[in-house]
């Protein structure tokens, strides 16, 4: 396959060869079998094709449509709605800086600005070596460790501009990089996409899963002997009868 500009043709390697399609069809059948209705498998199928080429292309969307018996327009509507699906080629490592309210106040905006200058990238752009794609995200769901940076959906907590710049430098150099919580090493963007498609890499239980502020409430409850109410025997409020508590 090739695309042409005014000067030179640009060769684009074909990803969805007959061999690749045959292999992906087997994975697709396994994914679809998990759902009562085939079209419900669209989200993991999009992750599956993303794991093959690093983004969701028109060919990838067409593959999903063929597997589910739905239109290309229906697939495109979903693929372009969710930000976890790349629409263009990107780097091996997606570096997402949380710039939502708490992280921004705690330094997220400063970190994002520092990384844009350090890498000479705008939001959504990729380094020339194909290693790092930089983006700001609205929430990394880790407010208790703000400011937070995620790399391929793994947490890097309590970041500063200096630690974030060291992080992206290490990623580009191929150094061993370990998330703050979770597995002891990072997988690539394609590997992470395959996990999100529902194919377990056996690493979900690695490392620390919760720590520090996330456990503060649990520790207070333990010290005070507090327990959650029995959902089958909830107390009634003064304005409720027995039926209202059920």
UniProtKB/TrEMBL annotation:
Q: List the InterPro entries.
A: NuoE-like, NuoE_dom, NuoE_N, Thioredoxin-like_sf
Task: List the keywords (alphabetical).
Answer: 2Fe-2S, Iron, Iron-sulfur, Metal-binding, Oxidoreductase
How the cofactor is bound: the record states: Binds 1 [2Fe-2S] cluster.
Cross-referenced Gene3D superfamilies: Glutaredoxin, NADH-quinone oxidoreductase subunit E
What Enzyme Commission number(s) appear in the record? 1.6.5.11
Q: Tell me the classification of the organism that encodes this protein.
A: Bacteria, Bacillati, Actinomycetota, Actinomycetes, Streptosporangiales
Gene field = nuoE
According to the UniProt entry, the coiled-coil residues are none
Pfam families linked: 2Fe-2S_thioredx (PF01257)
Give the protein family: Belongs to the complex I 24 kDa subunit family.
Classification via PROSITE patterns: COMPLEX1_24K (PS01099)
| Annotated region (Disordered), positions in chain | 221-246
Which is an annotated GO molecular function term of this record? Answer: metal ion binding
Record: residues binding [2Fe-2S] cluster: 98, 103, 139, 143
Under what name is this protein listed?
A: NADH-quinone oxidoreductase subunit NuoE
The prosthetic group or cofactor this protein requires is: [2Fe-2S] cluster
């Amino acid at each position: 396959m090739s695309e042409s500009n005014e000067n030179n043709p640009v060769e684009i390697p074909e990803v969805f060869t007959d061999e690749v399609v045959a292999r992906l069809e087997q994975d697709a059948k396994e994914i679809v079998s998990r759902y009562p209705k085939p079209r419900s498998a669209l989200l993991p199928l999009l992750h599956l094709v993303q794991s093959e080429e690093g983004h969701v292309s028109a060919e990838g969307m067409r593959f999903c449509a063929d597997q589910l018996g739905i239109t290309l327009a229906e697939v495109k509507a979903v693929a372009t709605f969710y930000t976890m699906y790349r629409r263009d080629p990107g780097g091996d490592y997606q570096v997402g800086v949380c710039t939502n309210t708490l992280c921004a106040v705690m330094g997220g905006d400063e970190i994002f600005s520092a990384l844009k200058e350090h890498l000479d990238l705008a939001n959504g752009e990729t380094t020339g070596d194909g290693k790092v794609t930089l983006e700001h995200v609205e929430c990394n769901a880790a407010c208790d460790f703000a400011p937070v940076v995620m790399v391929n959906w793994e947490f890097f907590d309590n970041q500063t501009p200096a630690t974030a710049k060291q992080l992206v430098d290490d990623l580009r150099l191929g150094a061993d990089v370990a998330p703050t919580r979770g597995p002891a090493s990072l997988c690539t963007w394609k590997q992470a996409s395959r996990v999100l498609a529902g194919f377990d890499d056996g690493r979900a239980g690695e490392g620390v899963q919760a720590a520090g502020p996330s456990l503060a409430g649990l520790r207070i409850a333990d010290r005070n002997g507090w327990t959650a109410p029995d959902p089958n025997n909830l107390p009634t409020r003064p304005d409720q009868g027995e039926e209202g508590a059920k």
